[in-house]
Amino acid sequence: MSNNNIKALKSSVWYIVANFLTAASAFLTTPIFTRLMTQEQYGMYNNFTSWQSILAILCTFNVGVSLISARYDYEDNLDQYIFSAVGMSAASVLIWTALLNLFSDWSQSFFSLSMLYVNLMMAHIFFVRVFEMFQAQQRYFFKYKLQVVLSVLSMLLSLGLSLILVTNMGDKLSGRIIGSVLPSIVIGVFIFIVFWAKGKRIHFGYWKYTLKICLPYIPHLLSMTVLNSTDRIMITKICGAADNALYSLAYTCGSIITILLTSINTAFSPWLAERIHEGDTRSVRSFSKYYIISFVSIAIGVMLVAPEVLYILGGREYLAAIYVIPPVAMGCICQFLYTMMVDIEQIKRKTVGMALASMAAAVLNYVLNLLLIPRFGYIAAAYTTLAGFLLLLALHMWIVRRMGMSHVYSYKFIVLMVIASGAVTVAINAVYAAPIIRYILIAAYVIALASVIYIKRDLILKFIKTFKSKKQIKNGE
Questions:
Q1: Which one, of 211, 153, 205, lies nearest residue 184 by Cα?
Q2: From CA 161, how far away is CA 172, in angstroms rounded?
Q3: Residues 6 or more apart from 224 whose CB is under 8 A from it?
């Protein structure tokens, strides 16, 4: 393996490690914050993060995605390009911040946040984007050490400062928000100064190039963010922050498997691309059945142990939200299945349908939330989100069929798995009221899973080796 390929492999591994540590630390410290904060405060913090994820896309254009092509197109002036792209984000964030402060009464009512939190959110949005641009720059040139150190440092400072402030401040919500955003802002300021020193000045001609790449992503990213965030925002407005706390924690429990989805898709998608490139769709069709069954089995396992996970993360007062988890986990199964379709769309560079499908799902989710949350409460939001993911799956299956690529997967098998998963979801939802039956099912599940893994161990090891070899090929070995 050449020196550059070794650097590429190390960079990828350490970047994944840093991301995993960040995600894991946030998840593992959840039980601490749910016990230090009231349900209303925890719900308001989730309202803050939900709005932040939406405004980050609207205000900053997600300029980091342009670097993958700019590094070649502006190789000789990359520092100036980076500073110019970051400068465009800064201009946009400043304009948005000025407007929100000009109409402060409307802003506070619309976001259900004080202007202090709104301004902290806008500052955090910009400097996190600066940090992400730095990470992308380092990653593309296989420089992993500094970005890993800064990522872990930011995470540790954020969690440490949040714990100190939440423990010692009378206003624990302020402590949680200030503690979570201040370290990223400080690190982002230093990175921005470095970009400024290297880039010298903003070249406005680069803005057109950046917008041309970034704007098409916005409808898709925004729609997906709205689909994942609008329920918490609407619960806060309609039901109150305490109900949002119940829903948010249960949603976190149910969506644990999305971490798995992201991880395994990084291995599956390059393998899929290689098979399609070689015209070997038969092996994909065959393996995809095992692949789907494996993921669905894990999702069912999460549903079965959901009460214990919810108790550990939040305590007894959060157990009322247990019925949110099954539909959320079922939604994750649909997300997993449509991601398989999206992989084909991306491989064939047919991405227009992605944005249209995402927007349709976001609209459906919003309308259903508007109709059902006032009537049935926060639990309804889990089912409206599931409806959005079901629509996404149906639309992406239709798009792939229109592309003439439906033969890659067995559509009949996918439909049967969705129906079976739905039936299991309903059954597990029912046995939450019968702990003994659930414990028997957990024991049977563990025995069955262990038996299958043992029987199919050779096949599993063989495919893991296949994935490893494809990753090495992708990295240039």
A1: 153
A2: 12
A3: 358, 362
Q: At 280, give phi and psi (nearest 5°).
A: -95, 65
* Cβ–Cβ under 8 Å, residues 67 and 140: yes
Q: b/e per residue, 370-396, with b = 16+ CB within 10 A?
A: eebbeeeebbbbbbbbbbbbbbbbbbb
B/e letters for 6-28, b = 16+ CB within 10 Å, e = fewer, are: ebbbebbebbeebbeebeeeeee
Long-range contacts of 363-370 (CB under 8 A, 24+ apart): 364/388, 364/391, 365/226, 365/227, 365/230, 365/231, 366/226, 366/230, 366/234, 369/230, 369/231, 369/234, 370/234
**How far apart are the C-alpha atoms of 19 and 15, rounded to whole Å?**
6
What is the token pair recorded at 3?
């020196």
What angle, rounded to 10 degrees, do the helices at 379-402 and 217-238 form?
160
By the 8 A CB rule, do 267 and 12 touch? Answer: no
Within 13 Å, how many C-alpha atoms sit on residue 240's CB side? Answer: 5
Return the SS3 of 335.
helix
Provide the H-helix boundaries in 204-351.
Answer: 205-214, 217-238, 241-254, 256-277, 281-304, 306-314, 325-347
* Angstrom distance (rounded) from CA 370 to CA 368: 5
Q: Extract the tokens encoding 66.
A: 């342009």
Q: For residue 168, which phi and psi values (nearest 5 degrees)?
A: -105, -15
229 and 366 Cβ atoms separated by less than 8 Å: no
Start-to-end C-alpha separation, the chain: 5
Mean pLDDT, 10 residues at a time, the chain of 477 residues: 51 62 74 92 93 92 81 87 95 97 96 95 96 84 79 91 94 95 95 95 91 81 82 91 90 73 65 78 84 88 90 88 91 89 77 82 93 94 94 93 89 94 93 92 91 78 57 45
Tokens, residue 51: 């709005």
At 1 the pLDDT is 45
